[in-house]
Design a protein that fits this description.
The chain is mainly alpha-helical. The protein is built from seven helices and two strands. Helices cover about 60% and strands about 10% of the residues.
């Protein structure tokens, strides 16, 4: 069994609490959403998102997500000065969060909710395909 990282001081030792502390802030979830649904992979793409995240907050959240192993980085093969961000496969978890929120709140993007409700497996497969293709493209010269 792989050794777990020593965790920072948390409010409690509850696994759900740890998840919320890692993923629960507004900006981290929006970064993850943009990676999963919009295919964002660069700092500039996140910065240009319509929510208007400040540069210092974006840099901080990306650092935290990297430290927690939620996203990984690699140099852009076409421009070594730039970094490409990749998301681990959180699609099943985030999909359930979208469905839960849509069932309990008046939310936007009902087209996305309907798409998931109609065929969750197809939605997850498409998300996984986008993720796999993006990672494959990075490995090609």
């Amino acid at each position: 069994m792989p050794r777990k990282k020593a965790s920072p001081k948390r409010r409690s030792r509850c696994p759900l609490n740890a998840s919320v502390e890692i993923l629960g802030d507004r900006w981290s979830l929006l970064i993850i959403r943009d990676m999963m649904l919009r295919g964002f992979r660069t700092y500039k793409e996140f910065l240009d998102s319509y929510e208007g995240i400040a540069t210092n907050i974006l840099a901080d959240r990306l650092r935290k997500l990297i430290a927690h192993g939620i996203i990984t980085t690699q140099r852009n093969p076409s421009d070594g000065r730039k970094v490409i961000y990749s998301l681990i496969d959180l699609a099943p978890v985030l999909t359930e969060m979208v469905l839960w929120a849509a069932a309990h709140e008046d939310t936007g993007n009902q087209a996305l909710v309907r798409q998931i409700q109609q065929d969750k497996e197809k939605f997850l497969n498409a998300a996984w395909q986008r993720w796999a293709e993006a990672n494959r493209a990075l490995r090609q010269p």
